Amino acid sequence: MRWPEASRLIVLALVAPALVACTVGPDYARPVTPEHVEYREEVTPVAVADTLAPPPAPLPSVESVVDLPWWELFRDPVLQDLIETALANNRDLAVARARVEEARAALGFQRANLIPRVDAIASGDLDDTTAEGGVDATGVVGAAVSWEADLFGRLRRTNEAALRDLLATEEVFRGVTVALVAQVADQYLLLRDLDNRLVVSEETADARLTSLEILRVRYSAGMISEVEVNQGEIELAIARSAVEAFQRLRGQVENVLAFLIGSPPSVIPRGASLADDMLPPDLPAGLPSDLLDRRPDILAAEHALAAQTARIGVAEALKYPSVTLSANLGASFASVSAGFLNMAADLFAPLFNAGQNDRRVEIEIARTRQALATYEQTILTAFREVENAMIAVHRYEAEYRQRLLQLQAARNAATLSWARYEGGMTSYLEVLDVQRSEFSAELAASEALGLRLSSLVDLYRALGGGWTAPEDPAAEPEGVE
Q1: 302 pLDDT more than 90
Q2: What does the pLDDT read at residue 429?
Q3: 393-418 confidence digits (pLDDT tens)
Q4: 1 has pLDDT over 70
Q5: What is the 3-state secondary structure (H, E, C) of the chain?
């Protein structure tokens, strides 16, 4: 290679990095999103005239509520252990964690394209057929260096997209974590509710068996008809069938919990009862805009939008020339050793491809519009879910109080009705009707309490989670300059 040519290549190698700052395509900026000034549901305490529940505590803010550790919300060590076990062993969470590792490796793969590539080269040959009868050895040892001058930012935009993909995958991992904790808590609360309803059913069955024995004695004495005995048998069978149903449901919920914590079907330990120091704080207040920086699904959708925006730049850069610089340097030896240095520059510039490059840009723009619509839809979904969860928390609180009033009245009526029946003042039909009401009120009160607590779980999930993931699956990557 002549020195003038080498000089021009050296000059090009020095000038090309200065051109890298020219990056085509749009830079990402958070778009104008659907606005939601305040939640529709009022956060004032529900006014119910009863003395069965203590007055509500002062209303905390969204920031204070959603940042509470989970075990401070439900003070149940068994639930805490189940959640920690699920976070350690759940297979869906393991898949999400592995996807983060995959995205991190993909980012490292793309970043490598920004750095010159160096490969070693070596070759050798031995020839013992020379005229003098000796051995002739020849060989080459050196290095090959190549680097693509990113004149219009194609590699940088690709790297930017990979970075955003990693961040989106991390948010998906956090979203799976939030959903998993909510599922474990929901199923555990349902299990404790079924425990309560099973106890109610067993106690009701025992009470109805006692009543049936009394009826049989009275029937034997000719005091009542066989119809009343049959009615007592019907009510006993109803209570016992409820026992069987709740045992079946309880076993199935235990299997769901075992699956969530990553173990074969097994008996789940129990901790506090639903009403035993597990009461949640009242409805929180806050601004809907907090969701944009809190919910993992919104953040993941935004990172996906940013990644897709960067891909417009990748497609745009393909319309412009690209330059690859390469050099081979090393030494060759034969009868005489000598060094060598070869430098080259390859220029690739698209001239005519029937508009493929323009269509490629249009494709990425259309995909970006799709990502924007998905992002906006995710925000609207978040607003709806928080609104629904706040309504549920507020209304289940009122419903539970009314169920307590219903239960209190049903118990009193059952006591009075049996006393009236014992005194011959009413028929057994009235007793049966009141007992049915008491049984239904017992079950409904337990269910309402469970739903009240589960609605808070839904609110925490809708707000983006009130807990911290046990580990950050990927270190925070550095941004691309």
Answers
A1: yes
A2: 83
A3: 889 989 999 999 999 999 999 999 98
A4: no
A5: CCHHHHHHHHHHHHHHHHHCCCCCCCCCCCCCCCCCCCCCCCCCCCCCCCCCCCCCCCCCEHHHHHCCCHHHHCCCHHHHHHHHHHHHHCHHHHHHHHHHHHHHHHHHHHHHHHCCEEEEEEEEEEECCCCCCCCEEEEEEEEEEEEEECCCCHHHHHHHHHHHHHHHHHHHHHHHHHHHHHHHHHHHHHHHHHHHHHHHHHHHHHHHHHHHHHHHHHHHCCCCCHHHHHHHHHHHHHHHHHHHHHHHHHHHHHHHHHHHCCCCCCCCCCCCCCCCCCCCCCCCECCHHHHHHCCHHHHHHHHHHHHHHHHHHHHHHCCCCEEEEEEEEEEEECCCCEEEEEEEEEEECCCCCCCHHHHHHHHHHHHHHHHHHHHHHHHHHHHHHHHHHHHHHHHHHHHHHHHHHHHHHHHHHHHHHHHHHHCCCCCHHHHHHHHHHHHHHHHHHHHHHHHHHHHHHHHHHHCCCCCCCCCCCCCCCCCCC
